[in-house]
Write a structure and sequence with these properties.
Layout: H1 6-42, H2 48-51, H3 54-67, H4 69-101, H5 103-118, H6 125-132, H7 136-160, H8 164-172, H9 177-188, H10 190-214, H11 220-229, H12 233-263
Helix pairs in contact: 3-12, 4-5, 4-7, 4-10, 4-11, 5-7, 6-7, 7-10, 8-9, 10-11, 10-12, 11-12
């Protein structure tokens, strides 16, 4: 392998420097936000009892971690979100494959999918609780319902945008519909599937939060509701910050998965 040219090395150096600059800027914005928040609370510009402040949130995290309840709440929400995320992605992708396979079924169900996608899923949560019960299953089912329709529509759109010429070429050489799906449609639709994964992360957390608000006995959603009821705003803000961190971590995992798929 030939040695890279000086121009290429300079380009790589600039690209690396640009990434470091972006990361440093992001860290600076985050630090400035929390610093301004803490300063405003100390100067009595905002009421720390209502808006909390970073030092109080840290103290709340230490207290909850020492009692063991913080790990329990994080574990419950993370498990429910990941399970809902996986189920909605798998079910949604399989349903999209079925609709692509059967054109009659796709035309028949498409209006219903559009209507269900427009319907606020939170409106279904009380009904789901009545049907399934006041338990964790309702939380997971709510998470799945929140994101599965979006997955179906996103992946199906990706399937339908695959080049017709490529499909006709495979069919011209005697390829079956299954081979067209596995060799042409699925590989070409990887960006759409990854896009669905990225969307599902946020939607799964939304569904889990709605479920935990209504029925859970543990989880960050429960901690938010309970903390607001007893005016423990430190717990509420801590839970929101942890949710943001969990969403960011899961999003980065999807990004790494995307890079690995593309590099193969």
């Amino acid at each position: 392998m030939s040695n890279p040219s000086p121009e290429h090395l300079e380009y790589l150096k600039k690209a690396k420097l640009g990434k470091l600059l972006v990361l440093a800027s992001q860290a600076l914005i985050l630090a400035a936000f929390f610093g301004a928040w803490e300063l405003a609370a100390r100067l009595k510009l905002i009421d720390a009892f209502i808006f909390s402040q970073p030092t109080r949130i840290i103290n709340a995290a230490v207290s909850l971690a020492a009692s063991g309840s913080l790990a329990k709440h994080i574990g419950a929400t993370l498990w429910e979100s990941v399970l809902g995320f996986v189920l909605s992605t798998v079910i949604g992708t399989l349903m999209a494959m079925l609709l692509w396979w059967n054109d009659f079924l796709k035309k028949t169900l498409n209006p219903y999918l559009v209507v269900l996608n427009s319907l606020p899923k939170t409106a279904l949560a009380p009904i789901i609780i009545v049907w399934i019960g006041n338990n964790v299953k309702s939380v997971i089912f709510t998470a799945v319902m929140t994101s599965v329709i979006v997955t179906i529509l996103t992946v199906l759109t990706g399937f339908m945008e695959v080049s017709k010429d490529k499909i006709k070429l495979v069919e011209a050489f005697g390829g079956t519909k299954r081979q067209v799906l596995s060799k042409v449609v699925l590989p070409a639709s990887i960006p759409a599937i990854v896009n669905a994964l990225e969307i599902n992360i946020g939607l799964s957390f939304v569904g889990v939060m709605v479920g935990e608000f209504l029925v859970a006995k543990s989880g960050l959603g429960y901690l938010i509701i309970y903390g607001s009821q007893i005016l423990k705003m430190d717990w509420v803000m801590l839970s929101i910050i942890i949710l943001c961190a969990l969403a960011a971590i899961l999003h980065q995992l999807v990004v790494l998965f995307e890079k690995r798929i593309i590099n193969q």
